[in-house]
Amino acid sequence: MNLHLDMLRHGETTGGGGFRGRLDDELTAEGWQQMRRAVAERAGWSRIISSPLKRCARFAAELAEGQDLELEVEPAFRELDFGAWEGLTAAELMLDRSEQLGRFWADPYGFTPPGGESLMVFETRVLTALERLADRWAGERILLVTHAGVMRLLLAEARGLPRERLLQVEVGHASLFGLNVGFRDATLWLEETCLPF
Asked: Are 101 and 38 in contact (CB under 8 A)?
């Protein structure tokens, strides 16, 4: 049996845009409303899994309480750590680090921001955590409240995209996507699905 995984990205945050991986921003009032709208009229999850960062976990806690669901906080589903780029925007990086930024956009697996987490390490932690979920909760429908980077990685994998196209996957605030997750010949596989409700 497959795990049915619905993924919800956090809404708008107080920190604004830019590279905000390990920074623990709060949701704005609009961010809360974006997430509430995204799941309005939706039900059927057996449990909620969330990144530990406040922009995900606080909404996940509200939703879990409102739908009487178990909430599990999973550190492996936190965002990519951007190292020295944390808190900076692309426009700010263009002023004196445009060559580095260009390398990252062109090949995120081949270039890691200074002091940051490599995409290979990020991929390993996210996919390892997903394997645990698929093994533990096969046959269930789970909501994962997480970040754009995690969702891009999983959607790119499900869509069979080459690694250099990872950052082209669009994941807006409070976006909701569905995946079937299972094992074929003991190997994790992902398939994007339409949300059923």
From this structure: no
- Listed residue (33, 52, 30) closest to 147, CA to CA: 52
Q: In the chain, which stretches have pLDDT less than 50?
A: none
Alpha carbon of 135 to those of 34, 66, 126, 162, 194: distances in Å? 31, 27, 14, 26, 22
**Burial letters 97-125, b for 16+ CB under 10 A, else e:** beebbeebeeebeebbbeebbbbeebbeb
Query: What is the residue range of 146's domain?
Result: 3-193
Q: What is the pTM of this model?
A: 0.96
144-153 pLDDT tens trace: 999 999 999 9
| Number of domains making up the chain | 1
Evaluate whether 48 touches 70 at the Cβ level (below 8 Å): yes
- Does residue 192 contact residue 178 with C-beta atoms inside 8 Å? yes
Q: Residue 188's domain is classified under what CATH number?
A: 3.40.50.1240
**Catalytic annotation, residues:** 10, 79
SS3 192: strand
**86 neighbors 19 (Cβ within 8 angstroms):** yes
